[in-house]
Amino acid sequence: MSLENCNKRVKELLGKNHILENPLVKGFLEDDNYFNIFETSILEPTEENKNKVEEAFKNYYEKIRINAYFNNLIRYYAIDFDKKIRKINNRYTLTLDKPIDGAEEGIVAFKDLIENESIGEESEKSESSLKEEVSNELLFRALAVLTDFQYQILDLIYVKNLTKTQIANL
After folding, report:
1. For the whole prediction, is pTM greater than 0.85?
2. Which of 92, 99, 124, 130 suits a disulfide with 155, CB 3.0-4.6 Å?
């Protein structure tokens, strides 16, 4: 019997039993190695071939179960971790970070209501720059490589002593 006829015969057998409707069996038979073992057992129905198919399917099924187990383990661990972090964050929120119920658009927390006029005053008071403060030649050359935006951020942090929140507001 030719290989083409063998494949047709196996597919006919599978089609009559509607066995390919089962996703587990369909996945098993999509693997060429497993399909060849199955095909051999259909064309040469011996006890040894039957046992080979059963053993191959057991191995395949075990792999599927292990993958599903680890998938679920990772998923539920991530969900529990997220719940834990949210619980901690909600438990220890700062008074200014607490959300406001029924607030206007753009105002989410109490800290958004506070206007900080001292930020502009502090930056106007200190006239020195980061390059004036640096004495190390290597560091000075590294500062020259930075873009204007990067340099300005570093200047606001280290010379003007602004917090990251204040810099973000600017």
Report:
1. no
2. 130
Between 101 and 151, residue with greater pLDDT: 151
80: helix, coil or strand?
Answer: helix
- Residue 54 pLDDT exceeds 90: yes
The C-alpha atoms of residue 47 and residue 35 are separated, in whole angstroms, by 17
Which residue has 């599978």 as its token pair? 14
Exposure of 89 in the CB half-sphere (CA atoms within 13 A): 9
| CA proximity to 25, closest of 49, 66, 56 | 56
> Which DSSP state fits 22?
S
Give the pair of three-digit tokens for residue 154.
């570093």
What are phi and psi for residue 99, nearest 5 degrees? -70, 150
As a whole number of Å, the end-to-end CA separation of the chain is: 81
Alpha-carbon distance of 134 to 129, in angstroms, equals 9
What count of residues does the chain have? Answer: 170
Residue 158 has pLDDT above 70, yes or no: yes
Average pLDDT over residues 32-54: 89
Confidence band of 4 (pLDDT split at 50, 70, 90): low
